[in-house]
Write a structure and sequence with these properties.
This protein has about 450 residues and is α+β, with helices and mostly antiparallel strands. It has 10 helices and 19 strands.
């Protein structure tokens, strides 16, 4: 007989070579030449074996290779397979040269099985997307940045200005006692500096002293630094500060809308958006992310959902996280249309979100480009692996700067007590990072520049 080794997974005889490497000790229950493993009582072995058996029981396949179809079984083989023996349904034995690398051949319609066997990642690689690297062993979740409250100062003085490179801008000084906050608003956002002076200074002297700091922050060359000549005095300070405060409030995000999608080992968005309900794992995950709310009459942040006529469903998932309102667009809660495989209404809401969480209720890898969208720039894939633990992976579209806090633990596994904090912090920070990508930032900067120019012209 050709040199070969057979591995038995309960009633299924599969190749030891390759499978043993994939599962380690969890895959070797009994082999012809390794009786010691037969006595293993490792629970992870039993779980792995049961998982393989259950998957194989659901598979009817053996083609495109030298063997024949085996009812109820699955055939693995190798380029140098010499003999395939057909046993009773549910069994397959392959004799092969054990010195050659093992490979899977001919599983056209059951990729989840091979994903389970080969240990593929939660997120697959695809053009235009970048997987985020894992960080340290310990999960560290930092507090989200505090929203600007500059215009809550009691004493404020502001100037308007223009610069060839910076464009229209507003510079404001806020004072509380001897503590000063300096706030520059320009097309790309805002810059703040803080300092204390234990004596009263008039505004013109403060302006002269702090302009070099902003020139440095804006990375302006020496010949193009900010000077007092770039700014003009404004008499009506009260009206000016109302306009600047309104600008900042309109540009400050009041709430976040994120997609929350159920996938059952599916490979098209039509399949994913046709899911009407999920397993108890999906329900538990939704409960972790927020509370189920009735949309009709909802008085808080609505995230673009209809709160009057139920056209976007009757319920959704909402939470307030560190003073940030979050409304999820839950794929199974958005309305579906009977006999419509595309489910346009569901795709429209999730496809217009910048960040999407995909709950993968299965073992296959998820490709971040499955849901076609110009807006989606961050995808978090989550998988319930049991024992109150979740496996996570993150991918971002080209143009989004990585890493995004918090980093993924080295083993990619997060406990139930931390998964909510991890995902919500990742989503909020991820949206801020995505908005800095050129596809969003250029449009936001143009809009902000137009508003600042209007304020400049009106004073």
């Amino acid at each position: 007989m050709i040199d070969g080794t057979v591995l038995e997974f309960e009633e299924h005889l599969l190749l030891k070579e390759g499978l043993a490497n994939i599962f380690g000790k969890g895959g070797v229950l009994k082999s012809d030449n390794d009786s010691a493993s037969k006595d293993s009582d490792d629970s992870s072995s039993k779980d792995s074996i049961d998982g393989v058996s259950n998957l194989i029981d659901k598979t009817l396949l053996a083609r495109d290779g030298p063997g024949e179809q085996i009812p109820g079984g699955i055939l693995f083989h190798h380029d140098s397979v010499i003999e395939n023996r057909q046993i009773k349904p549910g069994h397959t034995r392959t004799i092969m040269n054990s010195n050659q690398p093992w490979k899977k051949v001919g599983i056209p319609n059951y990729e989840p099985l091979y994903s389970f066997l080969s240990g593929v990642p939660l997120i697959s690689n695809c053009d235009g997307w970048n997987q985020e690297d894992k960080g340290d062993n310990e999960l560290s979740i930092k507090t989200l940045p505090i929203k600007s409250q500059f215009f809550s100062h009691t004493e404020i003085y502001s100037w308007l200005g223009r610069h060839a490179e910076v464009g229209p801008m507003a510079l404001s000084i806020g004072k509380i006692g001897y503590n000063y906050s300096i706030f520059l608003q320009y097309k790309n956002g805002e810059i703040s500096h803080y300092f204390s002076i234990k004596k009263d200074l008039d505004e013109s002297k403060i302006l002269k002293s702090i302009l070099p700091l902003f020139s440095l922050s804006l990375d302006l060359k020496k010949t193009k630094k900010l000077t007092k000549t770039h700014f003009k005095e404004v008499e009506d300070q009260e009206d000016l500060q109302k306009k600047l405060k309104s600008l900042e409030e309109n540009q400050t995000q009041k709430g976040y809308k994120f997609g929350l999608v159920l996938s059952k080992n599916q490979s098209t968005d039509d399949e994913i958006f046709s899911n009407e309900k999920g397993s108890c794992k999906w329900d538990r995950f939704l409960n972790l992310m927020g509370v189920k709310i009735l949309l009709r009459g909802w008085e808080h942040y609505k995230g673009g959902l209809d709160i009057d006529n139920d056209t976007t469903g009757t319920h959704s998932i909402y939470t307030n996280y560190q003073d940030n309102e979050v409304m999820f667009h839950v794929s199974t809660m958005l309305p579906s249309t009977a006999n419509n495989t595309q489910q346009i209404d569901r795709k429209r809401h999730v496809g217009n979100d910048i960040c999407v969480v995909v709950f993968q209720d299965g073992k296959s890898s998820y490709s971040p480009d499955i849901i076609k969208s110009h807006f989606i720039h961050l995808v978090i894939v989550v998988q319930d692996i049991g024992d109150d633990k979740y496996k996570v992976a993150v991918s971002t579209k080209d143009g989004v700067e990585l890493p995004i806090e918090p980093s993924i633990p080295e083993n990619g596994i997060i406990g139930k007590e931390q998964i909510r904090d991890f995902i919500l912090t990742k989503l909020i920070n991820g949206e801020q990072a995505a908005l800095c990508a050129p596809v969003f930032a250029d449009k936001l900067h143009q809009a902000r520049e137009t508003l600042l120019q209007d304020i400049f012209n009106n004073f």
